[in-house]
UniProtKB/TrEMBL annotation:
<dbReference type="GO" id="GO:0005198">
    <property type="term" value="F:structural molecule activity"/>
</dbReference>
<feature type="transmembrane region" description="Helical">
    <location>
        <begin position="83"/>
        <end position="102"/>
    </location>
</feature>
<dbReference type="InterPro" id="IPR004031">
    <property type="entry name" value="PMP22/EMP/MP20/Claudin"/>
</dbReference>
<dbReference type="InterPro" id="IPR006187">
    <property type="entry name" value="Claudin"/>
</dbReference>
<dbReference type="GO" id="GO:0005923">
    <property type="term" value="C:bicellular tight junction"/>
</dbReference>
<comment type="similarity">
    <text>Belongs to the claudin family.</text>
</comment>
<feature type="transmembrane region" description="Helical">
    <location>
        <begin position="166"/>
        <end position="185"/>
    </location>
</feature>
<keyword id="KW-1003">Cell membrane</keyword>
<keyword id="KW-0796">Tight junction</keyword>
<dbReference type="InterPro" id="IPR017974">
    <property type="entry name" value="Claudin_CS"/>
</dbReference>
<protein>
    <recommendedName>
        <fullName>Claudin</fullName>
    </recommendedName>
</protein>
<keyword id="KW-0965">Cell junction</keyword>
<feature type="transmembrane region" description="Helical">
    <location>
        <begin position="122"/>
        <end position="146"/>
    </location>
</feature>
<keyword id="KW-0472">Membrane</keyword>
<keyword id="KW-1133">Transmembrane helix</keyword>
<dbReference type="Pfam" id="PF00822">
    <property type="entry name" value="PMP22_Claudin"/>
</dbReference>
<comment type="function">
    <text>Claudins function as major constituents of the tight junction complexes that regulate the permeability of epithelia.</text>
</comment>
Amino acid sequence: MASTGLQLLGLVLALLGWVFGALVCAAPLWRVSAFVGGELVIAQVMWEGLWMNCLSQTTGQIQCKTYDSTLALPMSAQAARSLTVLALLLCLVALMLGVAGAKCTHCMGDSNQASKARLARIAGVLFLVAGLAYLIPICWTAHAIIRDFYDPNIAAPLKRELGPALYLGWGASLLLLVGGSLLHVGSSPPGGRVLPVFGGAAAKDNPHTGAAGEVKQQEKSFV
């Protein structure tokens, strides 16, 4: 059915968004050294991520080092870490609920379709929340990079450009949002039987009226 296809497409897109989001979270390519005036600001290219920074030299050697202290990081970096990890955990929970509630699986049996549809809709909402939670640090970091790049008070060697991880992060957020929406739309509850309103009412009313008529006829006959 079309709803089953929407569920599968939503799960696949959300799964891809989760995988790409995990890669973006681990990649040290959120900020890269900027080019100003056609020349490299620093002789060595600096890559910065959420968990480590890397130094790429002209000889091709790359040296990476994790941050010494989490508390020493700016509040924006700590918030970005928290939101990305929260988004990945929400995706994990939503993926388990989505697989359990999909119409093509038999995790909860075929007789409990209403509960399966409810689980799938909850999974879609969780994917949407995860996509929004992942989009916030991506846009926040991009705004800070652009603001500092055009700030004349910041020295040229400290300026950074948007790293490739941010573009991949936007794509991951979009996949999560689209996948969650498709999963929620495709998880409509099973349709119940519609009772005939007028026919049912007539069927219920006719016996009573017939019985009342019979009582009246019996009373007349006794009289």
